[in-house]
Amino acid sequence: MNKYTKKQLLIGGVILLVVINLAALGTFLYQNYQEKQSSTEYLSKKQEYRRHAPDSMKYPRAGDHFGRFLKNKLNFDEEQFNEFNKLRAKTKEKQFNLHKKIKEHRSEMMEELASDSPDEEKLHEINDSITTMQSDLNKILFNYFQKVREISNPDQRETFNQMIKEMHKHKYKQPMHRRNSGRNRK
What we know:
mainly alpha, 82% helix, 186 residues
């Protein structure tokens, strides 16, 4: 091969590499732009939903993994899933209100305990009140599970019952320090 042909091949190779790099860079920039557009569109739809959603549904848990999991596991149709979401929103609101009251009572208890002369009778009253509210939380949960069963067909009920048994087994297999690890996250 003569010098002229080698030079042409080398220049052609460099040009080809530049074109490939420009194409890759263009693809990268285009995908990045598309991703920004879709995330902006998603956020605007989410904000629009929150503006028009009922108060109890405005700030659902991030991703609502449990709801989707349950829908898929039980094979809920859209009507069942809508009913489930309404039920869940009402239940969450009741639970939230009770948790708030329990927290207030615990604060009151701690203040009483921190006083110079704590009133033992008052502490017992506060404790009894907290115990009653804890029982009410359990009743809310039991009613919730019962209503989920009611909106389910017989096959779905069987699957749901198995899920509850598994959740119960799983909870007591965890070490004590991990059981409540997700409760206080914000």
